[in-house]
């Protein structure tokens, strides 16, 4: 990362990008936020509106609107521009529009001399993460997707309502595609350090109404529930992006489920997919390889196969 100031650019000044900027500003994640959007008028207005929050935040974060050619000295670029699924389309169905959006943009950003980290939120996030990695030529650890970070948060929230405990006392991960083939890694879910399976076995009457299959389904469908209710999902993913950005810029070494480019981990190569990883100043410091059950391994391989099948529709890079 260059310079002493922590600088982040957010490409896409719509609901996800603006919500992310708002969360980053209020959590004092960085010193400067550059907003880049399709509409100069709207982007300027978003930056102006956000700048009025500084007086009420814990630090003075500079927020301004700008253009792609001003991203050269950014430590982190968050890619939030893109369409929402809907009208019968899944996240995978957004691949064509995301490809058209980013195929030239990434090259333009690299031509500025950008040498930081890409954080991808655009859907289908696993494939767009892989696309950005290929187009940018950056090392794999410096291209990260939001992946199943938000799905993991949804899982913890749903479990916390049944147990009941604070969601932050529930530990575990959703892995695989940020989409229909995702799955909770039940064998590694713990509550206060105690395996969830042990808790359920010891208290069958207390938790007889808790169905793991139903929790997994509600986790997978949570985004659709929000989308159908209000037309977009942006607060949750903005919070997830902010947590990832904070770990990178502050060198926190936090473990989160993100889209990582695999190179042998879990027996997979040349694919972006949701896995737990340690996040630090250099990006992904290490992908954690959990000991999956046989059933979980099959679910992971199935999810990777679905992502690869959709990836195959892209032109050769």
Task: Describe this structure as you would to a colleague.
This protein is α/β, with parallel strands linked by helices and 317 residues long. The chain has two domains: 139 residues, Rossmann fold (3-Layer(aba) Sandwich), CATH 3.40.50.720; 163 residues, Alpha-Beta Complex (L-2-Hydroxyisocaproate Dehydrogenase, Chain A, domain 2). It contains nine helices and 14 strands. The strands form four sheets. A six-stranded parallel β-sheet has the order 3-2-1-4-5-6, sandwiched between helices. The protein has a three-stranded antiparallel β-sheet with strand order 7-10-11. The longest helix is centred in the C-terminal third of the chain and has 19 residues. The chain is globular and about 60 Å long. The two termini are 27 Å apart. The mean pLDDT is 94. It is found in: Cytoplasm. Its EC number is 1.1.1.27. It is an enzyme of class 1 (oxidoreductase).
Which class best fits the helix and strand makeup? Answer: alpha/beta
Report low-confidence residues grouped into runs of 5 or more.
Answer: none
CATH class of the largest domain: Alpha Beta
Number of strands: 14
The secondary-structure element order is EHEHEEHEHEHEEEEEHHHEEEH
Count of alpha/pi helices: 9
- Measured by DSSP, the beta-strand proportion falls in 15-25%
Give the helix level as a range of percent: 25-40%
The CATH homologous superfamily of the largest domain corresponds to: Lactate dehydrogenase/glycoside hydrolase, family 4, C-terminal
Radius of gyration: 19 Å
What is the CATH topology descriptor of the largest domain?
L-2-Hydroxyisocaproate Dehydrogenase, Chain A, domain 2
Question: What form results from the Cα inertia axes?
Answer: globular
Largest beta sheet: strand ordering: 3-2-1-4-5-6
Distance between the termini: 27 Å
**Largest sheet composition:** 6 strands, parallel
Number of domains: 2
Please tell me the overall pLDDT: 94
CATH architecture of the largest domain: Alpha-Beta Complex
Organism: Paenibacillus albicereus
GO cellular component, one term: cytoplasm
Family: Belongs to the LDH/MDH superfamily. LDH family.
Subunit structure: Homotetramer.
């Amino acid at each position: 990362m260059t310079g002493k100031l922590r600088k982040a650019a957010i490409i896409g000044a719509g609901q996800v990008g603006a919500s992310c900027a708002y969360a980053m500003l209020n959590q004092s994640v960085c010193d400067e936020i550059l907003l880049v959007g399709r509409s100069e008028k709207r982007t300027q207005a978003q930056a102006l509106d956000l700048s009025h929050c500084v007086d009420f935040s814990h630090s003075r974060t500079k927020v301004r609107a700008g253009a792609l050619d001003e991203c050269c000295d950014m430590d982190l670029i968050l890619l939030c521009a893109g369409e929402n699924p809907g009208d019968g389309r899944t996240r995978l169905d957004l691949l064509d529009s995301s490809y058209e959006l980013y195929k030239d943009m990434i090259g333009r950003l690299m031509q500025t001399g950008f040498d930081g980290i890409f954080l991808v939120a655009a859907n289908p996030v696993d494939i767009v993460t892989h696309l950005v990695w290929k187009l940018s030529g950056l090392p794999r650890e410096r291209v990260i997707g939001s992946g199943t970070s938000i799905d993991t948060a949804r899982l913890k929230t749903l479990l916390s309502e049944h147990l009941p405990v604070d969601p932050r006392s529930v530990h575990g991960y959703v892995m695989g595609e940020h989409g229909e083939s995702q799955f909770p890694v039940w064998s590694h879910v713990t509550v206060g350090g105690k395996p969830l399976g042990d808790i359920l076995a010891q208290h069958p009457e207390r938790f007889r109404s808790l169905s793991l299959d139903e929790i997994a389904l509600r986790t997978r469908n949570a985004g659709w529930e929000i989308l159908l209710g209000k037309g977009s999902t942006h607060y949750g993913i903005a919070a997830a992006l902010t947590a990832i950005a904070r770990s990178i810029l502050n060198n926190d070494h936090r473990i989160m489920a993100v889209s990582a480019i695999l190179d042998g981990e879990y027996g997979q190569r040349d694919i972006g997919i949701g896995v737990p990883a340690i996040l630090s100043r250099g990006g992904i410091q290490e992908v954690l390889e959990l000991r999956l059950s046989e059933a979980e391994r099959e679910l992971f391989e199935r999810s990777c196969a679905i992502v690869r099948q959709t990836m195959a529709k892209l032109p050769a890079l």
